[in-house]
Amino acid sequence: MASMSPVTPAAAEPRRSTRLLSNTKPADADADADAEAEVERERSTSRGGKRRRKAAGKGTGARKRAAKGKRKEPESAAGAMEVEDAGSGINGDVYPEEPDSEEMKLIEEEEQADHGEEGSAETRGARKRVAPPRAQRRPEASADHFVGEPIPDDKARRLWPSRYETKDSDSRSRRSNDPEEEIGAQCHYTSACVDDAIFNLNDDVYVKAGPNEENYIGRITEFFEGTDHVLYFTCRWFFRAEDTVISPNLLEVHDHEHDQKRVFLSEEKNDNMIESIISKLNIIYVDPSKTPQERDQLISNSDLYYDMSYSVAYSTFANIPAENDGATDSEVASDISCEEGKPVADPVGSSDARRETATLLDLYSGCGAMSTGLCLGAALSGIKLNTKWAVDMNEYACNSLKHNHPGTQVRNEKAEDFLALLQHWNALCQKYVVHSSNSSGSDLAQMSNDDEDDENEALPNDLFEVERLLDICYGDPNKTGKDGLWFKVRWKTYDPSHDSWEPIDGLSDSPECIKEFVQRGYRESILPLPGSVDVICGGPPCQGISGLNRFRNYNEPLEDDRNKQLVVFMDVVNYLRPKYVLMENVVDILKFADGFLGRYALSRLVSMRYQARLGLMVAGCYGLPQFRMRAFLWGALPSRVLPKFPLPTHDVVKRGVVPNAFSQCLVAYDEIDDKRLKKALVLQDALSDLPKVPNYQPNDLMENRINPKTEFQRYIRLSRKDMEDYSFGDATPSPKACQLFDHQPLELSTDDYQRVKQIPFRKGANFRDLKGVQVGENNTVEFNPHIPRVFLPSGKPLVPYYAMTYIKGKSPKPFGRLWWDETVPTVVTRAEPHNQIILHPNQHRVLTVRENARLQGFPDYYRLFGPIKQKYIQVGNAVAVPVARALGYSLGQAYRGALVGGQPLFELPENFASVGQAAATASPVGVVEK
Ligand code: SAH
């Protein structure tokens, strides 16, 4: 049985775990050394305990420069999304080609471009607010004063004990320049007179900001005379949307807007001189589940309103529980503590909620790793999450998903077409289901595609008669050049080979068929309707944020078509309004253009009135020999509990933290926390039970398995049933225990195979070990002038030119061998050894699809489909299954109404990484909150 221990408080800036593991050198040792040095640099700038949001103003160093030069992960979204043509060879693939110089150059430039860019971002998650610097204060010149008697000493000491702690009296009375040091108090008051106006505790006020800045907004929580005899008030800040991580730029994005009257209550406070109070304003709390009309009525007489809290840590926007909603002055020191995340209405979850079911839509599903993991994790918390719908434009990925989730409606189409289809489908359901009595063929006129050409008209009736409709789509299935609504038709007396897509207005003489199709489709929920989806998950590709600088739209990232899917994803959320949202993406969405796209995603969710929380998770921390950091964004309706992020289970070195507003989003333990983390996994833990395979391995099924050797291997080999994977319903046709799928490597070209055979079986081996190469100054490779160049039978050089020049000859990656005691930085979509370390430790081949799948935490029963390169793409694109599983557990807990409370992180149950259902049943998985 697991236990929970208290975790990082939301407002504190934790010192993240950055220890180095001595015996677990990652494959890319040089790059990692850089990264480690960087982490050290990063740490030294962010150390110093709490970085409180001291208030704004000049001269306070409100903005810090970010650390420079982060390490780039060897993956690009562009590479990640590549779709290559099938050719000959294994599964119809061609041998990997020699990369041309252009390809190598592109990758190289990409790496360098990325290095140059990082570090430009400013710290801007939360504008700081401060009174004028202390040195400028002249209390004696001010006519402002406290009013009435001081609060009795014993009461003041009880309410604000730390203000009265006797410290070194010298330092108390000295005017400290340390903005972090708490100011000691002589006595406290309940009112003050500033510019002839009276202000009381709990008043909401405008506070003077820096030049050219809008006034700040805050709530007075203390009035006190400092030991330095200055008159202070303590202010708890409200944030306007543009003061939060959402940032002012987002107010210019025209697909959504923020209510000008809405502010967010934070936990951030600091002390300012009472002269900086400008005037009172009226801010009311509004329950976020109120309808817009109710809200409008409530706020009509107030200046501003708030319905959620905001915290820089994990960029959290969350509910404020009803009992803490107000600014009442009943208790002098009503120091509201947000217990965020609690549902404010319609609470769900009860102890007998076990096996509650919920529906999931997986957008940009790929082969389904993310939803698979979510479902596995949710099951462990007692929620039967069912991937009801999945959408991906890649046919092979859809085939994989279909095989592994036979009950899922898998839609092989573009997400933008899917959204249009949903809108049409809703209209059809309204006509034929909700108002079915008065539907008729003439209604079709309204649904028909605009300006259809004659070529799209129905086929002559005497030849073809519709038997029934089989499917529906929006788009252009017949490549006519126009998008519209189409039905797939089975023709009477014709076999399925004659099925065809027909436009809706070509079917105007078959209204009954449409009606019958829509009614059946509605019954079977072939498509989601607004409000019918519990959870939407997905990783919209943002290819416009990687690649060469000259191709990236830094100023307007949303204008780049390659980033449009982020908008589409949010449009789908807006249309369907699921209870929960989980979006995954590369960390670059928080880096590129000062994190514009990440901010946009948060901004959309918040403007749709979702609670939101952002976290950066490292896959290795959940029990994989792979680093892989990714960004995850939760969204939850105000009526639900906002999920937390699951703390790591494994002790992995964190490399490269985002150096800007998102630096407080890393999901990790504080360095100081007592934690029981398991040792990081290495390659051997994950792969040592896999049979030997040659470079050419034509079969995707092997029958000779040896026994598992590690806990990881035992877990990854569990059956569907034992993992509690419901996707096959009651039938659980897991492969037989002896069967192993997809243990095939991408076959090396003849030349590359010759080269690989000469790379020794040794840790750290790579092309530098080939004959004729020597390492010169600055770790740069050069040809040994005394050794004649060696040529392969094909006439090509043994040591290819691209390897010598890659990253100006400094890279150890070309033809690099992995070693058993290493972790890989990130499993990518390509399997060529030319510019990445992907050779097996002691076999002359690249890692197989299954080996990559293991490193991504796919259960062995999960089969992949398509040409081999497509399988690598599906695996490389995936969300690491254990990460999704941990998030699924968190989702399940939130869904059940558990894990309420202000902490953004929680501890997973003990042995979570390896617990299967059998074990879970014997000792139910649960969380004990401390
Ligand atoms: N979450 C997935 C991986 C997603 S990778 C997993 O865990 O397995 C992103 C996917 O988006 C790719 O499979 C790609 O085919 C798909 N994709 C890219 N553009 C798309 C679009 N416009 N519509 C639908 N799918 C798209």
Automatic annotation (TrEMBL):
Residues 102-118, 137-157, 164-178 have a biased composition (Basic and acidic residues). It comes from the Eukaryota. Coiled coil: none annotated. GO terms for cellular component: nucleus. The keyword ATP-binding does not apply. The active site is at C542. Residues 48-71 have a biased composition (Basic residues). Residues 464-520 form the Chromo domain. Transmembrane segments: none annotated. PROSITE patterns: BAH, C5_MTASE_1, CHROMO_2, SAM_MT_C5. Residues 1-183 are annotated as: Disordered. One of its GO terms (molecular function) is DNA (cytosine-5-)-methyltransferase activity. The keyword S-adenosyl-L-methionine applies. Belongs to the class I-like SAM-binding methyltransferase superfamily. C5-methyltransferase family. This is DNA (cytosine-5-)-methyltransferase.
